[in-house]
Amino acid sequence: MVHQYINNGYHIVLDVNSGAIHVVDEVVYDVIPLFEKHSSEEITGLLREKYSEEERAQAWRRVAAERLREASAGVLHLFQPMRSRGEAVSELHYDFSVLTSREFIACMDADRSNRDMNTISRTQALRLYYKMHDKVERPISGLDAHDLEEQACIADTDAMVERAAAFFTSSKLVTKVGL
Predict the structure, then answer these.
(1) What pLDDT is attached to residue 53?
(2) Is 87 helix (H, G, I), strand (E, B) or coil?
(3) Mean pLDDT of residues grouped by 10 in the chain (179 residues)?
(4) How many other C-beta atoms are found inside a 10 Å radius of the C-beta of residue 95?
(5) What's the Cα-to-Cα distance from 75 to each of 18, 40, 66, rounded to whole Å?
(6) For residue 66, what are the CA distances in angstroms to 11, 13, 114, 130?
């Protein structure tokens, strides 16, 4: 969820989910509320009279890059702690940027019934999360992908799928705008 406001001439954007506060230029400020529900072509049409093509393109790229950065890494706070090494683990660190292209493709191949390259299935998202998890969190907590499959409650599994899907969507968007 994002809140936007202008104060003393500054365009301020508050990302409620991450707690990040951004001071942005006017064109980025205008693109942000349109970003989730409109394609780049629709946004271009809506802002065509107010901004140049280059300004719109730069704003779109900045917003897409920031979305990817936010979706790539963070901490997942668990609804139900898991056990590892005799201790409770209540949060999992994630960073999808550690995945190689080969690992990413292998995860996408996990669900051959999904033939749409622009969407990610639940199976693909979980495989993506588990693969990343083994590289990032396993050395920290000792939990491996098998532990996640065995111990994660439905809400935590859904959160893992959500994080992987957000990364997938953001990476596809960045690829589309050519970053």
Answers:
(1) 84
(2) strand
(3) 87 77 86 78 84 84 82 92 94 93 90 84 93 92 93 94 89 57
(4) 15
(5) 10, 30, 17
(6) 16, 12, 28, 24
Please give the Cα distance from 38 to 41 (Å, whole number): 8
84: helix, strand or coil: strand
CA dihedral 33, 38, 42, 45 (to 10 degrees): -10
CA 154 to chain centre: 20
CB 122 within 8 A of CB 161: yes
Q: Are 131 and 145 in contact (CB under 8 A)?
A: yes
pTM of the predicted structure, to 2 decimals:
0.72
Question: 40 in helix, strand or coil?
Answer: helix
**Per the structure block, which two tokens stand in for 41?**
């072509």
The DSSP output letter for 163 is: H
Q: What is the dihedral of CA 123, 34, 52, 7, to 10 degrees?
A: -120
> Residue 95: helix, strand or coil by DSSP?
strand
